[in-house]
Every structure is written in C-alpha cells, then in structure tokens.
C-alpha cells in the first residue's frame, strides 16, 4: 500500500472513533487549537471499503464494484425472467411493464414484450439476488447491519422503436420513497450482460447526492414517456455526467439523491440489469403531503387501488410496507 493510502486509512480510522478531548499545554512554541475533522457522512466503517473507495463515494455518491455477481447466478436470474415472460409462473404482487412503444403494438407473450419486472419479492429465485452475501456485505457499508430490501427490479431495456421511449429521464430515486434518512438508503444495480453507451448504460451526475430532493414530473418528450418514469424538472443536459459502462456481473452502489438515468438502446438486443433498493431497518416513514413527492404518492395510490380493488384507505406508506423484506439483522422501524 502506498504511503498516501496508509495515511487515508489512518485518517478514516480516526474519523470512525469518538472524538477525544485535547488539552493544550503551555509551551515556548506557538500553540494551535485542534478541531477534529467531521465524521464521514455517507459510508460506515465496516473494514470492507478501502479508504479510497469510501472517499470516492463520499465525493461522488456512487461506487462501481467489478465482477461482483457470478455468471452462474446471473444465468439463473435470466432463466427465471424468461419463465415469467412465458407466463409459466404467477408471482403475487409482481408488476410486468412494457415500453410505451411496445404497448401500442400487438402483445406477444415473451420477453420481447416486457421492458421491466418490478416488485419480484415473492419470486424466490429473483429475490435471491437481494440476499446474496457478496451484495449484502457492501450494502452494510451504507445502511448498517439492519437491512431491508425495499424495491426490486429486473430491467429489460428494449431496442428503441424510433421514438426514444427507451430512455429513462434523469431522476433521484428518493422521489419514490416515503422513508428516511436518505443517507441510510442505497441501490445495488448489477449488469446482467455487457452494458455500454450503445445499449443505454446508466448515466450519473457525480456529487448531486450532496444536494436536496428536486421536483419531479413527467418530461415533455415527443415520443412519450413510460409510466412512473418521472424526471428532475430542473435538469440541465449540460451538467457534467459519467456514463457507467459495465461488464456482466459488475455492480454499482449509489445514493438515492444521486441524479441518474439512462439513454436509448440503439442496438437490436435487450439490455438486462437486476437491482434492489435497500434501507436500514432503523429508517422510518414520513408524511409526504405538502412536499414535492405528493404527485408520486397520488399516482402510486391510484395504481395500488386499481390493482387490489381498494379505496382511499390505502396509504403511500402501506404500498411500501407490504413490499419490504428483512434480509439481515432486525426490522425496527420499517
């Protein structure tokens, strides 16, 4: 390890301890007042992340771990996805979504008609992704030891039909979540095949996790926008951004306030990824009335009411509480 890395490690070990009281003694040289540095905010000291990795996440709001999930596991997730697309299994609570351009065409009961599976917590094989030890050991670096799997997705980004509908607007995931604190929430997003700019890789705006939750709504795109694909209203396309090109099994972990999205799939293949949003079991629900999240609360409640034939008695909190699953430690507040 380089001398610089060793100094960073010593610094972080110091930050993770309770600050000591220091008394200055009289001396014939100049006396300096010591102020201990602030504790790192976005990561926790589990001895897994290196000092360089922790500082990178603190500054940028994401970190990419290469080759984290095995080919064997990813191939099993792909086979289960194909079974669901062939309608060989019926998973309670699962939401099967199609791109708005595909939805206007004749329905074909195979994977080419499906752009996303959402809320697969009742599917034992797909949900196994959320419990992989190699994933959870990194999640703990952000949430702490009590871990809830809150939101699950398998994305099957289709080839763009020509209307740019395969894009995902730049957004912050916290817009969808009525729980806090944001710093104890993290997403794991794993590439199920090679992901690059041609097939619509993730695009992130580094450092935006340090800001606040922005106002979101549907962007005014000519080709249409997929359901629930809200975007930051104040997003400026000239903001410096990073394209996260990844290989199969690579996994990116990112903060829920990080502004991110994805471009068009300009290939003839489908770009697959699997993801889970985790929250600390010590997080708590909030009331979003009077906030910028009121619009997504209204939309989610309307969808849930139609799906389960419920009235106004269902709450935004309810729609999340039934999806959450404890995967490690204790479920205290969630």
UniProtKB/TrEMBL annotation:
Pfam families for the chain: PhyH (PF05721)
Entry superkingdom: Eukaryota
Pathway terms, separated by semicolons: Lipid metabolism; fatty acid metabolism
EC number: 1.14.11.18
One cellular-component annotation, GO: peroxisome
Keywords: Dioxygenase, Iron, Metal-binding, Oxidoreductase, Vitamin C
Broad EC category: oxidoreductase
Catalytic activity: 3-methyldodecanoyl-CoA + 2-oxoglutarate + O2 = 2-hydroxy-3-methyldodecanoyl-CoA + succinate + CO2; phytanoyl-CoA + 2-oxoglutarate + O2 = 2-hydroxyphytanoyl-CoA + succinate + CO2; octanoyl-CoA + 2-oxoglutarate + O2 = 2-hydroxyoctanoyl-CoA + succinate + CO2; 3-methylbutanoyl-CoA + 2-oxoglutarate + O2 = 2-hydroxy-3-methylbutanoyl-CoA + succinate + CO2
Cofactor(s) essential for the protein: L-ascorbate; ATP; Fe cation
PANTHER family per the UniProt record, alphabetical: PHYTANOYL-COA ALPHA-HYDROXYLASE, PHYTANOYL-COA DIOXYGENASE, PEROXISOMAL
Family: Belongs to the PhyH family.
Name of the featured protein: Phytanoyl-CoA dioxygenase, peroxisomal
Originating species: Parambassis ranga
Taxonomic path: Eukaryota, Metazoa, Chordata, Craniata, Vertebrata
